[in-house]
Amino acid sequence: MKKLAKRAPIGTGLLLSLFLFLATGKNVQAQSHGLVGVDHVGMNVPDMDSAVKFFTDVMGCVPVTTIGHLPMDAAWKKKYKIHPHSELERIVSLRAGNGSNIELFQYQSTEANKEQPYNDDMGLNHIAFYTTDMPETVAFLKTKGINVLNDPIKNMAGPTAGETWVYFLTPWGAKIELISYPDGKAYEKTSPAVKLWSPKDAEAPLKITEMPAAQINAIVEKHLEIWNAKESQQRTDAIKEVYNDQLVFVSPGFESVGNDKLNKFIDDLHANNAGYVFTHQRPIESHHNLARLFWSFGPPSHPDAITGMDLFIIENDRVQSLYVFLNAPGK
Question: Which residues form the signal peptide (predicted)?
């Protein structure tokens, strides 16, 4: 079975971070109250040693931490719905390549149900492992004596068309899924604002398809026209053409996601600076789908009353992120 290669360390500089957003196709998304993503998936197992051996030898996981017997009083068991006479013998956490970690629990209990739940039982869950080579992985599982439940099934219609999947059983009878979609899924071709996370994206090498400089310059010039338009309605169609629907806009004192908020920001800018116009300070600079526009903003009598620079991240012919830097007065 192929294992995922290690990724090179990533620098912390702003521009390198922007490169990575650009290269991997990820849009910055507003997180909810600090939530970032899935850290681990938990699974109860009847025998920890054999379960760790399976996930290590067959699935290529790496055990990282082990916790021994944990005492639980009656109040704890009642609160977390654990049988009164059960004991928590061991917890093992494993690294599973480029994806969620796996946390295994072994309980000692005479009261717990030892039968695997049916597929339609409440609370059933499963783990899906992504593979870059479905036939090879299925063949490998069979050499290990694993019970593979079906031949690879490829979804041919609907939003997940392009996805191939297989279910198999662990030695203790839990179902695990193999999944693969090397050419992506059908829904991705609609350019959705948000795509499902995938370990295949995390494994993808840094790759940037450069747009021609003339095309980038045209987008930046259109951006300047949008910001000089005084009426919101004048900007609406052009905004859809130039910016991604979930444009990330960051300027000193203001951040937003989405074009409606940006349009309102430009409205307020003109309302508070009547007669001001944006003009070039020097030619547009660009490389690797990044662009810099150095601008002046002011009335005809003082055209450089305010100066600054816009940094663009451009992908799929639209601006994905826009960062504004303001110069100190007099610079």
Answer: 1-30
